[in-house]
Amino acid sequence: MKISVVILNWNGAKLLDQFLPSVIENSPAEIAEIVVADNGSSDNSVALLQEKFPTVKLILLDKNYGFAEGYNRAIQLIDSEYTVLLNSDVEVTRNWLDRPIEILDNEMNIAAVQPKILAERNRTYFEYAGAAGGFMDKYGYPFCRGRILNTVEKDSGQYDNQIDVLWASGACLFVRTDIYKREGGLDGGFFAHQEEIDLCWRLRSRGYRIVCTSQSAVYHVGGATLQVESPHKTFLNFRNNLLMLYKNLPDKDLKPVFRVRYGLDMVAALKFFLTGHPKNARMIVRAIREYRRLKPEYQAKRKENLEKRTVSNIPEIIRKNLLFNYYFLGKRRFSEMGG
After folding, report:
1. CA pseudo-torsion sign 24, 25, 29, 31
2. Confidence band (pLDDT; 50, 70, 90) for 312?
3. d(Cα 135, Cα 201) in Å, to the nearest integer?
4. Given a cut of 80, is residue 156 above it in pLDDT?
5. Do the beta carbons of residue 186 and residue 72 sit within 8 Å?
6. How close are the terminal C-alpha atoms of the chain, in Å?
């Protein structure tokens, strides 16, 4: 099979019922297989798939392994040339597979591709989790073409050129299956959040390219429309971001970046506290403590990443402070950020 579209599901029967038909309709069976990996759901997801979508291949995992390890276990069972990691709340469009497959077929040094990701609920705007391709500032804050922090741009074709990016969104991530397996896949210890950025940074450092193409588009519901993140999501985002930095930063940047990040994270905690969200504030403090506890366990991964690094200066990591540019200079569009 040319490509496997793998949807990880956990108690998402309603989402599967709503969005899986678009995937089946727009993914030609002669080149694509649709796979749902069920993360130990307790709802009627499995029964729904068996009764309503019998052509979909089903992988049953024995428990909820989280986004990262769930995908790792599922993709170990995939032997297609390419794999798409696709969220269950994504509506795909006609010919959505064509351009990403063409890119991967023609340029062997490209490991992963992301389509343009638009908001399912407001289709003229980019979607928070990926937009038109991901970048990062020097302190580890991710942002996208079309989305910086909580400012999301309207899609007026301003980012319709194909471009190299640092990371492709896990909402819809095309990847070479053999490279995914060989380079370690997603970090299962992350459970969820930031794991695709960590994977793509690892691939980019090892000489592979990641690209975003606007000639393929999908619509993602996502969960970033809420005003305040859940405390658990806050914890995972802050902890995993610190772990990602530790795993991937060059030696010369490690201490300077962490000195600044600790301060910025405490400012974020203070902001949560002063705006009436003390649980989120406590989760940031907990995330820092948990990072420090886990750090020794990640020494081997850091060593491996540094040993396999072939690219020292990655242009998709801008040498600027995203927060300063956003809050103090008012630069809230990707086109204003510069390099």
Report:
1. negative
2. confident
3. 10
4. yes
5. yes
6. 40
CA dist., res. 98 & res. 78, Å (int): 20
**Distance (Å, rounded) from C-alpha 257 to C-alpha 244?**
12
- Nearest one of 82, 86, 87, 122 to 99, comparing CA atoms: 82
CA torsion through residues 213, 204, 313, 260, sign: positive
Q: How far apart are CA 187 and CA 191, in angstroms?
A: 8
Q: What is the mean pLDDT of residues 229-257?
A: 96
Please report the pLDDT score of residue 225 as a whole number: 41
| H or E stretch at 285 | helix 278-294
Taking Cα atoms as reference points, which of 10, 101, 99 lies closest to residue 60? 10
Count the neighbouring beta carbons within 10 Å of the beta carbon of residue 42. Answer: 9
User: Quick one: pLDDT at residue 229?
Assistant: 76
Q: Two tokens at 25?
A: 């309709």
Q: Read out DSSP for 132-199? A: T-EEEETTS-EEETTEETTEE-B-SSTT-S-EEESB--TTEEEEEHHHHHHTT-S-GGG-SSSHHHHH
Separation between Cα atoms, residue 165 and residue 196, nearest integer Å: 13
Question: Which CB contacts under 8 angstroms, 24+ apart, belong to 23-30?
Answer: 23/86, 23/90, 23/92, 24/53, 24/55, 24/56, 26/92, 26/93, 26/94, 26/95, 26/96, 26/97, 27/92, 27/96, 27/97, 28/97, 29/55
- AA letter at 59: I
Torsion of CA 84, 85, 89, 91, to 10 degrees: -10
The string of pLDDT tens digits covering residues 64-115 is 999 999 999 999 999 999 999 999 999 999 999 999 999 999 999 999 999 9
For 194, phi and psi rounded to 5 degrees?
75, -5
**Model confidence band, residue 339 (pLDDT cutoffs 50, 70, 90):** low
Nearest to residue 134, comparing CAs of 155, 156, 159?
159
pLDDT at 227: 45
Q: Which DSSP letter does residue 61 get?
A: E
